[in-house]
Amino acid sequence: MTPELRAMQEKWNQRYAAITGEPQASRVLQENHHLLPAEGDALDLACGLGGNALLLARSGLDVQAWDLSSVAIEALRVRAAREDLAVMVGQRDVLEQPPGVESFDVIVVSYFLERGLAPLLCTALRPGGLLFYQTFVRDRVSARGPDNPDFLLEENELRDLFAPLCLRVYREEGSVGDVHQGLRDEALLVAQRPLKEQAVSC
Questions:
Q1: Strands, E assignment, 85-158
Q2: Average pLDDT, the chain
Q3: Is residue 99 within 8 Å of residue 64, measured between CB atoms?
Q4: Nearest 5°: CA angle at 169, between 184 and 109?
Q5: 130-156 burial string, b = 16+ CB within 10 Å, else e?
Q6: Among 39, 147, 180, 197, which residue carries the largest CB count within 10 Å?
Q7: Where exactly are the structural domains of the chain?
Q8: Which of 177, 88, 186 is nearest to 133 (CA)?
């Protein structure tokens, strides 16, 4: 592990160690969990404390959850075991070890942005598989999210990153209208890999 990666791991270990309470699934998954298949293999990528992984497992899916933080992964392992949920945890640098081709029916990513992974996430879905994605945008109305603009989405960028997939749900409200209501500071997407017999265009 490089010194930079070790420093990042320690930063996130400290953050997760300070968090109390039960982890919550991301909004994109909570509001659209009715789109989940009845069974299959799911991945919570850069899972943190695993709110998404727990919801996926409670929905009957076989779940893998990956994160760089050993603290987060251990906390999720304990929670999943307590509920006897099918969650396989792994401490993993997802940039060095991305998911393999056609290995998952569902992939969930929240508050993690590495643009170079987008094509790999598209191919990691099996035909008909679903991607749930939510993270911060540059057009914010509050100070929520990272300061580094490299980790913030441009307008409609999330949609464009996953253009090979069929769009099922997309929300990005920017600063239009009453900014005290609605989804602000973030974009969310649910998209589906076409079936092999379908045309790529949706």
A1: 87-91, 104-110, 125-136
A2: 90
A3: no
A4: 70
A5: bbbbbbbbebbeeeebeeeeebbbeee
A6: 39
A7: 3-192
A8: 186
pLDDT score of 183 more than 80? no
Residue 6 CB-density burial (10 A; 0-12 exposed, 13-18 middle, 19+ buried): exposed
Domain 3-192 - what CATH class?
alpha beta
Residue with tokens 């307590």: 82
> What are the start-end ranges of the E strands in 62-165?
62-67, 87-91, 104-110, 125-136
Q: Is 81 helix (H, G, I), strand (E, B) or coil?
A: helix
The answer for residues whose C-beta is within 8 angstroms of residue 131's C-beta and 6 or more apart is 106, 107, 108, 109, 121, 122, 125, 162, 165, 189, 190, 191, 192, 193
CA distance 34 to 194: 19
Question: For 163-178, what is the mean pLDDT?
Answer: 81
Helix (H, G, I), strand (E, B) or coil at 171: strand
